Amino acid sequence: MKKLISIFIMSTTFFGASAQNNSDNPLMKKWTGPYGGVPAFNAYKVSDFKPAIEFAIQEKLNEVDAIANNPKAPTFDNTIAALELSGQKISRISTIYGIYRSNLSSPEFNVIDREMSPKFSAFTDKINQNKKLFTRIETLYNSKESKKLTSEQQRLIWLYYTNFVRQGAKLNEVDKAKVAALNQELAILFTRFSQNLLAEEDNQFVALKTENDFDGLPVEVKNAAIAEAKERKLDVLGCIANTRSSIEPFLTFSTRRDLREKAFDIFIKRGDNGNANDNNTTLVSILELRTQKAKLLGFETFANWSLSNKMAKDPQKTLDLMMSVWEPAVEKVHQDVAEMQKIVDAEGGKFKIQPWDYRYYAEKVRKAKYDLDQNEVKPYLQLENLREGMFWVAGELFDLNFKQITNVPVYHPDVRVWEVSNKVTGKVVGLWYFDPYARAGKRSGAWMNAYRDQQKLGGEVLTIVSNNCNFIKGAENEPILISWDDASTLFHEFGHALHGLCSNVTYPSLAGTAVARDYVEFPSQLLEHWLATPEVLNKFALHYKTNQPMPQGLVERIEKASNFGEGFATVETISSSLIDMKLHLSTEKIDPKKFEKETLDALHMPSEIVMRHRIPQFGHIFSGDGYSAGYYSYLWADVINADAWEAFTEGKGPYDKAVAKRLYENVFSIGNTIDQEKAYENFRGRAPKSDALMRARNFPLIGKK
Predict the structure, then answer these.
(1) How far apart are CA 521 and CA 492, in angstroms?
(2) Is 254 helix (H, G, I), strand (E, B) or coil?
(3) Which of 89, 124, 104 shows the shortest CA–CA distance to 9?
(4) What are the residues whose beta carbons fall under 8 Å from the beta carbon of 477, sequence distance 6 or more?
(5) Angle between helix 131-142 and helix 151-166 axes, rounded to 10 deg
(6) What is the pLDDT of residues 451-509, one digit of tens each?
């Protein structure tokens, strides 16, 4: 629940200037080479983007106009299938553009990004507001003849129709123009918010100037801080970068309370420093424009519009779910804090637990209560071994095999690529790119990208997916050791990748992870469970020095402590989810600081915890529309995840072949070809029950839903 999903969502926009085709521009060329073609990362330059985008956008618009103006009566083939096949060039270019935006940001690229973002948005609106095109789609949607099509084709017509309506296809021309103008303004603001946040993360750090500043840090955290200082060419011994992957280990282990407070302070104030990168004015403008847009589209609030294509549908349902978990989670936090405070008092600390103390003293409680020290676990969690463990799980559940290849270009030396095939038939199903390490110009967090969606329209097309993380490199030639939480994140994002790799549909718009936002996190959250299975721990949790598997006693202690910290994680995340939903249910202009404080006070937010994403740094909801009024999705999907895991535990266990087969056939392979509620019922035999989540988190049941 703590992760980013990891899928890159980008607004898109058209600009009227005529574009000249440049045959030498590598971005405009088809992907060539093995596997049906791969991106030519060794050929692209930032200066290629603008002319390539201009040409490809106009090409797509020309293709759409040809479909819209077809004199023949609309059919599935000449309208819907034709749309699926259109715009292949801009699709490829947008993919590379998104990769640069997330992984290779630079001052040169940022200038182009600020110019292109509103133009991409206008491009999308020009298609969504094409009256003749929508008339053809609407005709098919209402046609009795369409009922004779395959269920997947009917689903695709429904998807096109509902998406067009949701974006304003039925509005009058004046209101369409207003929506388009709002979308362009929003695209500019989304880009500004993202670039401000990245600048704060890239340019701020905590300097470690003396050996005492390293007190308490495990050797791999110390080495990473030293390497970070060298990378930045700083005249200090080490530094802690302003990203979650650096800050959280420091807050967990540093004995220097003064430095913990400094690290905590820079992290929670990202985008909220009253400087050139301050995001408060930007986010207020985003909220105001979203409210205007929702009202133009016929919705009371932006939250109502956002949920109109989600499983939840009604914002109140999400609030009810969040509050049902909130109260027991807060109570669990109070219990945990009381135990932490006893340690502070016993040590003569004479202070009340503060947010920068929480992780440090929680670790002490974990050690005292469960005889479990993260530093005892971490030597067994080698990044590369766990990656192999993920591959093994994918083979056991879905018969997938991974073979590293070196015959395709990559965009950075850190990136590696694997060919993915079915280990029974030998058939190649796709490629998996892995970019695991943090660096300047790469956004924080972890995510999955789809470079190319699986499809069978006009021939079988292999999917290409990636997982991107921000693990910290340590000393040269030393294995990368990661925390248990980071290992869970690794498995989570790989779950998204498997959702793409297992896809077996005909039409690209329905492939892989193209499901409702509050369902897309379910497969990824589900995969986290396999990390803790004895099979994975015994085979792949090997000590980095002795190569011995994790002792059974340690495995048992991990299991006993599995729910430790669940109150903290739940409060940290649901507070952000509640703020997100309440922000987008409001139609009034807000003061971010006041809104955040008053909302959290009303919820009785524990003073020892802050939101996982404070408002000025909440990239999920202000860098685009992907998770806006949708951060609740992690909790919604976790209800489904907990219920689905019980299908395995009620059966023959985590590697039950029959349950895995149902999971593949009804979840991982079918994309958006059927309604997700129906898909889940086909897998489980019934709708999910929320009491499974309460059991999973060891919270008291508060009635069944």
Answers:
(1) 9
(2) coil
(3) 124
(4) none
(5) 140
(6) 999 999 989 999 999 999 999 887 778 899 999 999 999 999 999 999 999 999 999 99
Q: Is the pLDDT of residue 704 over 50?
A: no
The vertex-65 CA angle with 64 and 68, nearest 5°, equals 90
Instruction: Give bridge partners of residue 678 from the DSSP assignment.
Output: none
Please report which confidence band the pLDDT of residue 638 belongs to, taking 50, 70 and 90 as the band edges.
very high
| Span between the terminal Cα atoms of the chain, in Å | 21
Predicted structure pTM score:
0.92
Residue showing tokens 């970019």: 435
C-alpha span between 476 and 479 (Å, rounded) = 8
Backbone angles phi, psi at 129, to 5 degrees: -100, 10
Residue among 144, 26, 149 nearest 76 (CA) = 149
Does residue 372 carry a pLDDT above 60? Answer: yes
For residues 186 and 621, the answer to whether their CB atoms sit within 8 Å is no
Q: b or e along 178-193 (b: 16 or more beta carbons within 10 Å of the residue's beta carbon)?
A: bbbbbbbbbbbbbbbb
**Tokens 């985003």 correspond to what residue?**
286
**Helix, strand or coil, per DSSP, at residue 668:** helix
Question: Which pLDDT does position 701 carry in this prediction?
Answer: 60
**Choosing from 493, 521, 528, 596, which is the catalytic residue?**
493
In terms of DSSP bridges, do strands 428-437 and 416-422 run parallel, antiparallel, or are they unpaired? antiparallel
Question: Is 493 marked active-site?
Answer: yes
Residue 659 one-letter amino acid: V
Q: Could you tell me the two tokens for 627? A: 């998770």
pLDDT of residue 562: 86
**Sequence-distant (≥ 6) Cβ neighbours of residue 72 within 8 angstroms:** 78
- Please state the φ and ψ torsions of residue 382, each to the nearest 5 degrees: -85, 130
> 400-433 pLDDT, tens per residue?
999 999 999 999 999 999 999 999 999 999 999 9
**Residues sharing a CB contact under 8 Å with residue 242, sequence separation 6 or more, in sequence order:** 200, 201, 202, 203, 204, 205, 266, 267, 270
SS3 382: strand
703 has pLDDT over 50:
no
